[in-house]
Amino acid sequence: xxxxxxxxxxxxxxxxxxxxxxxxxxxxxxxxxxxxxxxxxxxxxxxxxxxxxxxxxxxxxxxxxxxxxxxxxx
Length: 74
What we know:
By secondary structure, this protein is mainly alpha-helical. The protein has helices at 26-34, 39-45, 51-73, and strands at residues 6-7, 18-19.
């Protein structure tokens, strides 16, 4: 079984969604990308998050956004 991509626990950062196995909030990646920082800069600043986790997050976000857009157009 594959580890979850994101986890939440009231014991970790008050339940904020974090990358599985880390204490790094997913919001940090979103903040980096929204200010034109690179994935590489994010990974350098948060070495407990793997490149694979970031890519999986971005692919999942893309898939969900496309699905949502398709639902809205029906």
